[in-house]
Amino acid sequence: MREDVLRVDGLSTRFFTGEGQVNAVENVSFDVREGEVFGIVGESGSGKSVTGLSLVDLIESPGEITDGELWYRDVELADELSEEFPEAVDGEYVDLRGVPEAVRTSLRGTSFSMIFQDPESSFNPSLTVGEQIAEAVEVQQRASSRPRSTRSRTDSEAYSLGSLVLSFALPSRKYVSQESHERAIELLEMVGIPDPVERADEYPHEYSGGMLQRAMIAQALAGEPDVLVADEPTTALDVTIQAQVLDLLSELQEETGMTILIITHNLGVIARMCDRVGVMYAGEIVERGTLEDVFRDNVHPYTEGLLGSVPDLESVGGSLDPVRGNVPSLLDHEMEDRCYFADRCPKAMEACLERPTDARVEADGDHLVKCVLTEMEYGESPPLPDDYFAVEGDNAGNDDNANGAVDSSDGTVSADGGVSR
Fold first, then answer.
1. How far apart are the first and last CA of the chain?
2. Which among 66, 26, 49 is positioned nearest to 229, based on CA atoms?
3. Is 246 helix (H, G, I), strand (E, B) or coil?
4. Residue 24: helix, strand or coil by DSSP?
5. What letter does residue 156 receive in the DSSP assignment?
6. Residue 68 and residue 98: Cα distance in Å, rounded?
7. Does residue 136 or residue 420 have the better pLDDT?
8. Spatial distance between the Cα atoms of 302 and 402, rounded to a whole number of angstroms
9. Separation CA 112–CA 228 (nearest Å)
10. In whole numbers, what is the pLDDT of the chain averaged over residues?
């Protein structure tokens, strides 16, 4: 079995707003193995993107990572930090939440990188695409806090304000070297951009949506990361371009051996790309395991509901069975101390009025579910009446128009819940 490259334990991220505390990520735990593709799927508003941003330490005010550990496997880093931060080192693993921010920042790009949801807003419209990718390459080359022989291609001196002023007068002293420009063109070619030399001199608005997404992937690969977080990498792309982007990620993963964490609401992307998957709801991972575990042997009613909302391509005239209601408010004062899915669950019982914990479906397996149905059959605890939550003033349970945020647009989930890869 491959070793874990990342272990997330009890991660919680809050946003402190004028309306109150928003529990965007609540006690999330999972592990990602070296060289695998791990997926996180769920409706919009489930906390998927915030989880990804938390992993690469990009949470901005009013957000804050308030709890949890993030253990990253890196033998060299563990050796460097073991004396100064012994409590943050466990063998070959380092708890990135237990070291200074400067250390986490130094890992961004070389160890962790991210493909953001919207490439159009992520690129600077006033700079050419090639310049922006080359700058990303140069930054990684100049990283001096913890250089790595496999990634540091230059021994450049620290870049100061004086260096910036001098660069305006002497082109030879520009921040971005010719080698970085050449590497940017190589990266554009690697991700399938036609005529990369010419395209490198074009601006973002001159790229199509699919090409811009490829350029975003090239920029993310500038530091040759160990872990690539891909946040909705196929959003707003047509089906054909989606398939091309997914094929590209698969090819790059096979060539480089990097680990990929895919965040998506598209079950088809999960089925096509992932080795293991975590299903996220209301800031929690409610079910995780292999594709077989989640797609065929699922236990949590929310997972079952997501799969039931996928169109049956083999049946004519069939109807969808969507998950009723909406994702609940994540404001702390509005979240009840119970299973967060209970008000939408067709199998809600009195036992669901208590907070569930992760339980293994099999004693020696990796299929974990946050639901009482792992320990009892439906009906062993008295079922809740259909209007139980409506009586308390929560009408979300009677809204049958939800779940439009979860789809399977590339048709890779079969009618029986099977998986085609």
1. 21
2. 49
3. helix
4. strand
5. P
6. 10
7. 136
8. 13
9. 6
10. 85
Q: Which two tokens stand for residue 8?
A: 């997330």
Say what the pTM is: 0.84
Q: Tell me the CB-side half-sphere exposure of residue 305, using CA atoms within 13 A.
A: 27
Q: 């922006």: which residue's tokens?
A: 132
Cα 181 to chain centroid distance, Å, stands at 29
Amino acid at position 386, single letter: D
Amino acid at 399: D
Report which residue type is found at 389.
Answer: F
Contacts of 416 (CB under 8 A, 6+ apart): none
The kind and range of the H/E element at 166 are helix 161-169
- Distance (Å, whole) CA 320 – CA 323: 10
Distance of CA 364 to CAs 289, 356, 377, Å? Answer: 13, 20, 21
Q: What is the mean pLDDT of residues 155-166?
A: 48
> Does residue 273 contact residue 412 with C-beta atoms inside 8 Å?
no
- Structural tokens at position 315: 């049946």
Instruction: Please name the residues in contact with 1: beta carbons below 8 A apart, sequence gap of 6 or more.
Output: 33
Secondary structure (H, E, C), 282-329: CCEEEEEEEHHHHHCCCCCHHHHHHHHCCCCCCCCCCCCCCCCCCCCC
239 — phi, psi (to 5°)? -60, -40
| Percent of the chain residues topping a pLDDT of 90 | 63
Query: Count of residues for the chain?
Result: 421
Q: What is the pLDDT of residue 169?
A: 53
Give CA–CA dist 99/309, Å, rounded.
43
Question: Which tokens is 370 given?
Answer: 């946050």
Which SS3 state, helix, strand or coil, does residue 122 take? helix
Task: For residue 32, give the H/E element and its range.
Answer: strand 20-33
Give the model's confidence band at 140: pLDDT under 50 very low, under 70 low, under 90 confident, else very high.
confident
Q: For the beta carbon of residue 101, count every other beta carbon within 10 angstroms.
A: 9
| Per-residue model confidence as pLDDT tens digits over 43-72 | 999 999 999 999 999 999 999 999 999 999
| Burial degree of 222 (CB within 10 A; 0-12, 13-18, 19+) | buried
